[in-house]
User: Fold these one by one.
Assistant:
Number 1:
Amino acid sequence: MSLGRRSAYAKRGLLAGAALMVLCGAAQAQEALRPAAASPDGLAPGQLYMEADLVIRDDKNKTTTARGDIVVRYQGRTLRAQELVYDEARGLMRARGKTSIVNADGSVEYADEIVLDDQMKAGVATGFAARLPQNVKLAAASAVHRSEKVNELNRAIYTPCEICAPDGTSKSPTWSIKADKVVQDKDRQLVYYRNAVVRILGAPLVFLPIFWHPDPQAERKSGLLTPELSPSNRRGLSYEQPYLFVISPHSDLTLSPQINTKVNPFVNVHYRKRFYSGAVDARFGYTYDKDFDNDGDRFGDLTSRSYILASGAFAINDKWRWGFTAERTSDDLLFDKYEIGGVYESRGPYIADDRRLISQLYLTRESQKSYVSAAAFSIQGLRPGDNERTFPIVAPLIESRWEAPQSIAGGRLRLRASAVALTREQSPVNAPTLRLDGLDSRRATAEADWRTTFTTAGGLRISPYVQGRIDAYSIDDNFAGGVGVASRSDSMTRALGVAGLDVSYPFFKRYNSFTAIVEPIVQLAASPELKQIELGRNAIGDLVYLNEDALTFEFDETNLFRPNKFPGYDLSEDGLRANVGLRGSILWDDGRRATLLVGRSLRNERNEAFGAGSGLRDKASDWIVAASAEPLPGLSLFGRARLDADSLDVARAETGANVSSKWGYGYVRYLRDRSNPNALAGSTKVENLDLGGEVYLTRNWGLSLYGNRDLQQDAWVIRDIGVVYRDDCTRIDFIYRKEDTILGRLGPSESFTIRLTLATLGEPLYGN
């Protein structure tokens, strides 16, 4: 039968069954019990639907009883029971006999019997069990709803692991938590445990007579976080215990003292605050101690040692943004010695190289057709041999671009403007011990870029373009080279331009199960002769050019078809040149694919602005080859190389593979470089192998591997080997790691790590 608002007795009976969700303290149930504008089961607000074999109303005793296969639906929740009794005189509701509630999210709660007052302020459930989201199972001998603020479970067990074997028989969960009593205090937003035991495969691992943690329903709560215990030959045995202080709904502070047996304690602090327009995230660290070596032997004077890693980003309005980063440390090896993680991360729009810190202040404005930014930053180097006095202070750095909203002469027009000033305290050349003043430079640039595209009926694609640029430079304290040094100060302007077109003509051929594509590509470019900005000559008489923004230039497939292959402004290509290539692809119908690109750059004259090892100095450049393939599901391959123009010897090559399957995953990377990517430097040799992965020998047990080998030095930089156990709710890693000596860094180290990760409990309980 269907009951409306007049069926108050049946409605209260349903609410008695709904008490089961209240008893386990789930916020979802509380939301489900509130009237809604539209019920997911189609009932109108305040209505319910009930089926029962028999409904009895006893007016004398003022009781209503429903018996049989009872099904009650209300606000998207379904109650099933064998008996439902409402005692109006005593104000009690009782549901019993295979009682269960199925919620809209699929979670299910069970109880042998539920008793609840008609105000839903207190109640008891016996034989309580629940299957919640994330496959969590919860059971208790009894669940007591003492008030709207306090819930209690007695003789409770919690696990997200499977408790049934494939044949349907019961089994011990991989891990579980048992406690004599669990109390949820909503006022204090805490959950208390008494006599709790963490069990692994049924065996007790940790016994905690009493402990507490923030209520999962609470947004945030002060308290202890996961500790970290790690043995180290540098610091001895270290124990770090974070504690979270919730300062306000919008800010918190985490204090993490690190206690070491060999060296003095180190304190880490993490502060976060969110404002209406942005947020600040700041990390600090401090200790007062001597320096120490790889074995923990201290030396030198006692002094303060510290670091800061901070950032902030704020919105002024829907277009304007500003922000900052502050990154500094007192010791180059501080992060390594105290094993501080998350250091070399991107915190702002400008990113420093590895093992270098950047502090910056920036302002940006962005719209659909325009962008402008202004910034200033400085860099701290932590590499061996870094001298901060030789690093420039960049202030200001201004960049802007604007695109015309409508086509100009049938094409797209973009305008750009930029300016930068670099100031150095000390020059890195000409006997650094003399501490000569560093080179200072200033540049202002305005440029225009126009391009359009035509495609013929036959498929020929032609894209003409025109680019023009004006640069103005001012240079002070020029000490480049020891022979023919230019004047200490100079100002100059120059005009640059390039005109050309891109031409491509893809050919398609359809076969039975795949499509083949061959596409010749040609880019033509012409620029007037350009005089690079010369600083002087080095000790062997070669010209030294101003080059502040193209120090890490590398010729590969990503810039093969660029009219100006230099990534910055200081150096630029000129003359007549053609970039040519042939790209081929095979696309199978089942998703497999393979691509190959071969190309090179040709010019009418040599360009001495390119370094000897760049592969671009001669009239005919080195060959660029790049390929990728996905021959099988779960397998991908890639390779890229630069081959010498005459001998076809490998100047630089990188190749790798990725594989994944139900048995695990793996990857391998190989890099061989016989030339320095710095366009103005001499050659160096690099050869490196990087590999890693996991493979499972059985359903639960596997091996993990990671290694990084310097093939040039014939030595491993780092290598890991581990044994892994995993199932649906647990992962245990046993990892042996060895790090070899790195020049200018700390010495070699060995460690053994045991890392236990339990599903639904967040971070590992123990890790090295």
Note: The longest helix spans residues 8-23.
Number 2:
Amino acid sequence: MTEQYNQWLTQDPDPRTREELQRLIAEQQTEELADRFRSRLEFGTAGLRGKVGAGPNRMNRLVIQQTATGLGYYLQSQFSDAKQRGVVIGYDGRPDSKQFAHDTASVLTAQGIKVYLTHDVAATPIVAFGVRHFNAAAAVVVTASHNPPEYNGFKVYWDNGAQIIPPHDSGIASQIDVAANEDLNLLPLDQAEQQGHLVWLEGDYYQTYRATMNSNALLQNNTDPSSIGVAYTAMHGVGARMAETLLADAGFTQVYSVKEQREPDGTFPTVNFPNPEEAGAMDMVIALAKQHGAQLACANDPDADRFAVAVQKPDGEYQMLTGDQVGCLFGHYLLTQTDASKQLIGNTIVSSSLLNKIANAHGAEYYQTLTGFKWLTNVAMQKQSDDSQFLFAYEEALGYTVGNKVWDKDGLSALVAFSQLAAELYSQGKTIWDQLEALYRQHGMYINAQRSIALAPNSPPVGDKLRADPPKAIAGRNVEVIEDFKVQQRLMADGTTQTIDLPASDVLIYHLAGGARVVVRPSGTEPKLKCYYEVVEGFAADESFAEAQDKAQLAMDMLIAEHQHMI
């Protein structure tokens, strides 16, 4: 191992991480060193993401430079005009993000690849937007999104504007392995600019994104926007300036921003975990909403690709909507704004099946994909046609894309669209809760939940166990259909099978009597199950919203308890 350490110290361009590694060696922290050098940080469909620190299994300048070198090699193998088309690069507000982005630009321009580099921090959707805008070969966003402060990441978009999917992930990874064993070439940015390889994306580029959003036909509902209040937080991320600007452009005058969380700060001093889904993360924006009597308390995550909202209840308190509730509200709303029969909407296999019902009710085409926004947008591009144009997609983890101006989740346009949705309802004397109730009364009371189940460390592979002894019933509900995405087969109750037309993935879905569903994703690296639950209960005409919700929640609690007891 000493040879590996010395080789790393020789190559590492960052004095901070060199010093860090030397300290670990001097202190003989063998376990920590072993973890950092046991492998390279794995490049996958989400690019790279990991803790910042010295060593190949961490995020640092050397890993970034090697990764960028491999990406450049791969792009040139895939596009004969990769150098001319170039790569868009942007970054979030984490401490190392700007340096990592500049290193990426130095590597790519050294290969003769044109680079469009943001002059300042940028929301992820603003960078993704640039791929199609410039007809670039790819884009890179240096961001760890909503991960804790010690993380950073390197997210790659392909020339279609969507996140990479196979085979490009493995193709880039193989070229990174080549680069890791070569001397690296970098071009100083001032020289890259002089040679015409580097274009700085100044304020006018950000304004182009703004103008494009403002011209989006799906963001043109200006029904009394000044009548509702919107509290907002950027959660110490990069979304505030554009979010506030877009809301003002759309006519919202009662917008209140959490000043303590407005500016980018990668240490996230006021939240334990910069993820709107985490307990406590929305406390400050909800307090601000309560102070001003605003109907909505909204948040973007730190790179502004996700959107979260808590809604004022009749008693004046606020309740978070789930990602599925927001997604289904969006689906219904957007279909009513368009000729629904010509629209395509979708979500993932772990998201609520209510969206399918809503699409059917409006006569729209519905599609479903594996988990991950990369699938939602890539599949949408394949499926859309002149008769069925892509309208909307979402995943339950607070990701939404409204229209096709950005082929990835966009928390900024989602913020505007949801505010417009709310303003229209409130102008009619209705609330978000009234609209949810109407959807549930029409289609059934849907509740979705997610849980992780830890298993004993010495457990056999849990996926094998589940496939060897499939359950006949869960929580007293018969299993009517089993979908096994690993073998891409759907086993029907009568013993017949159907082919699942989705890529293979280690996922099992149990469809139960009464419309309930259990989705199981075994972990490939640890004895753990990620489980997604859905129950659908009737909504009687004489039942109140609260009564129907309580009944469905009781069924959900029973389903979760019984299923976890079975494992």
Note: Residues 545-566 form the longest helix (22 residues).
Number 3:
Amino acid sequence: MAEKRTFGWVQEAYTISNLKNVVRVFVFDSAVNKKLREDKIPRLISDEYHKDEMIKLLSTDEMEIPYILLKGKGTPKGFTRSNAPCSGIIQAVLPGQRKEYQSDWPADSFLRWAVSIGFLNYDRDKDTCSISELGYRYAVSADGSKEEKEILTEAFLSYPPVCRILSLLENGKSMTKFEIGCQLGFVGEAGFTSIPQNLILQGLSTANTPDERNKLLSDTEGTSDKYVRTICAWLKSMRWVMQVSKEVTADLRYMTHTDTINQSYQITLEGKKILKYATGASKYKRIDKRVMWDMLATKPSDRNYLRNRRTYLIKYLSTAYHSLDEIIVHLQTKGMTEDTGTISDDIQGLINIGINVNRNGNTFKIMDSIVGLNIPDSVKSVAATKSDLSLLKDDIRKKLNHINHKYLVLIDLGFDGNADRDYELQTADLLTSELSFKGARLGDTRKPDVCVYHDKNGLIIDNKAYSKGYSLPIKQADEMLRYIEENQKRDKALNPNEWWTIFDDAVSKFSFAFVSGEFTGGFKDRLENISRRSHTNGAAINSVNLLLLAEEIKSGRLSYGDAFTKFECNDEITM
């Protein structure tokens, strides 16, 4: 369990006063600690959740508390999140909207926040938390005092993503959460997705009601976009950034669409001054960066391998300037065989999480003092256990000389059964932003996932993210057949949303495509069946071959017309 913690990245934990109460839990006889022992835990937590043990642990001067007792359990069978019983210490600290406590998800978010910025120490072997010296100073500081502000400043500036966001805003121009999010995190990796802003504008241009607009702007975001929104809430509280409304523009099918995104941010004068502490500029002493092993990868199945590789990279680049070839030789001594493309993307990822990497010619050096970064003893032996998926991405990375490596995330998403929306969005972005096809992600009820076109050729796409491959079941084949027939007849009585208007009037030749991580079973029979019944040809293409096809198009080796011809084979496209 301890290896599955994701310290270093925080979502949905905004309020600094609640953070302080979480830290004050660990100070014996503080007002928060005392209320927990004498009132809240006896009243809110039942015996089955170890309330007596909780009270005992909270009654000592030097507390070391198991993470599970702090976070609590998930929602028990027969309950919903809204009525689940209180089962953790931090749940009891955080006030809910309709009840006196929060669920385990916010409790976990606040714990990760406190650990990530150095207020709590985390013992990985024991899976326990205790208060740090900085955390104790923070807990006993007077609310609103100068001392409290100085401690928060030190803590936040030790957290690399804070420095990354401030640096991106340094020039004084406002940026939306999507513009920041696409530059936060590791390149082309699940766990660091950002929704393409032009697709947000596409959706806003067709939203019919205020509710649709609000839902699109508040609910449609990638993982990195959520991190941006959370961190910027902290920076607003510190008065280092301010939230503004920003007008943004995108070229859509018939027009240039301009709209307003309210979740946009701009640095303040105080924020610019504070940023000098992060960079060590002029007379300001640079603050050490706290980098946790967990934050170096989150979602991939071989995240421990990636965390280890990036840990070795950070430690090596902290000693002196090194070239890519020297880094490769160094990693070989750790049992890791890598190439320059992979290392280049890793270095960009380090920059994107907020580590100050300087380049001198063809060599690189980390200019920050890094603290808190160690490989856990339990995973030091995973040096040779890179996953097949990572090996595949490394191989494809070498072949993408014209396509942005951020689209390597399509390989991850194609095998993630919970990532349908992100898979659709990133596919649409690859085709429209990177390759300049016209079209968009539709992806709502009774609409295809993605439609694109170029000159007279149009393509109707269904994205399917499956962990064990996609066999194209009959039901989903019939769904594609329905879309093809709706496009052929273009009768509003068949489908009042008229999704086919995404295509230009000049588009006269159509084909269909299924996009997935891998195809299995009798998918070819279903492709042929759709073709016979609709008199329309189509194809299946996996994420890897879609990327290779994109590379051929963008390099100029394959014309747009010939690319569409490939989707007429009624079979799987292989490049």
Note: The mean pLDDT is 92.
Number 4:
Amino acid sequence: MTTNEMYEKSEHDDARLTGCAAPGRHWFGLSGTLRTLETLLTIARWGALAWTAQAVLDRAAVRETRGLVAFAVTGMLAVGADWTADTLADRGARAVATGLRRQLTGALLPTAGRISETGPAEAAWAMVDLADDVADFHAQAAPLRRSAPLSMLAVLAVTAAVHWPAAIVLVLTTALLPLNMRLAGLFAQHGADRQAAATRHLNAVVLDSFRGLRTLRELGAVGRRGRTLTTAAEQLNKATMSVLRCAFLSGLVMDVVITFSIAVNATYIGLSLLGYAQVPHAPRLDLFTGLLVLLVCPMYFAPVRARAAAFHQRERATNAAGVIRDIVKDTPAQVTHRARPQSAEPVGVSLTAVRFRYGGADQDTIRADADFAPGTWTVITGVSGSGKSTLLSLIGGLRRPSAGEVRWRTSSVRREPTLGGCAWVGQRTVLLDATVRDNIRLGLPAATEQQILRAVDAAGLNAVVEGLPEGLNTRLGEGGRGVSTGEARRIAIARAFLRGARLWLLDEPTAHLDADSEREVVEALRRATDGCTVVIATHSFTPAAAADTVLTIDDGLLRAARPVNAR
């Protein structure tokens, strides 16, 4: 990468990172103003302390008392300004993090026709960690952009007014600091990139390990996966230590420069007070001026130290903003929710020369040409991993085909799949820690009691509800504690029934059920989907026996398996 390309990339990264601060900019501005006020109050506090010391030396009791009072008052005001500035910066950080999480939510959830292919590990990482990385950086850096120049100028002006040779020393040493920060930044960028990549890899390995723990145990691969986790953790540790070493070394160089500047001023002031050194045309030093210069000189470098800390954090925030941008870049600025089709007739499905290939794959996962007639049951079979769930996601609009087209059709309309326009029942039923009624109502939050009871009846839940301690008001534990797996599936069917969709997509709806429970779920589906178009991906014979048509996916190709007599 050429120097110009690196400069353009840096400018682009800066603009992207700065844009993330918009929701908290007002709070950051107020925080920066209070930081400047804190500096002025602290200068006044040290002036009061130096005044008090001079009064003690001069044995002036009245001035001594006034100096102590002024020191106490300005000290309390400075602490108040510091606390308020921190509070405002935190409020701004929360606004930034909330804004980023809203963008991520809009990108990760299937809305406005935007389908996210972001993996769950990276999605969780972006939501939990990366949004906070960006927000924390702005909470530290944004107020400094306003307060640092003004604070340093105020300290320099006071120092020059009291004793200008000391101000010259501060100016000369300041020139060395930007070079140190620039060099540190070149190393920090590389380290931050490695750390982000290692974190992403470790997140993915941990998530995959938890998901496949049972399979790993059955295959005897737990030990091997443990070694993979250890390797990924060591890579992250090395990347993190590299970043910390860079921060430590650049901080060490900065501390040497700052300490040298303060030491030069302290030595000069000490020798001047003792009468051993005197700069021509410089004002005479006394205890008040000498002590004030010594007290405010470290304040001159405080914003620089804070900027240096934020500078290292900036590289991490830049990487975080880049990952977030990659996730949300295709999301419309204003998300528009397309209306669900309200047709009273069943919705047929047409797959025309459909091909789907995952990014980076060498061959198509699915190749399909098929028509699912309105009002029919179609079962799709195939070995695990053959692409049954992928095909359902294409029909439901959760993914777009790499080639060809998927269309929903009625007697009067032919259109692309509409997100949220079909009912989906998966093999894993999500039940909240809430009542049975509330879990069913998730399908239609505004559902009336009559609609809920009709859904209960359609799903064959009447006997189940009557057997619960408080009926529909019975509270289920998180994950469905209190009902069996088959009963949980029927709650999911009742929930789907409430949506009123005329197209149902079911992914292994009878998985992990015994024969009796499987039969009850299929019967519930038959009642709930009367007159609807149903597409089921399954390994089980029971749903297949109830189907009008059975298709199979063989080596990625969807083909007819056998005809089944119509119901």
Note: The CA atoms of residues 366 and 556 lie 5 Å apart.
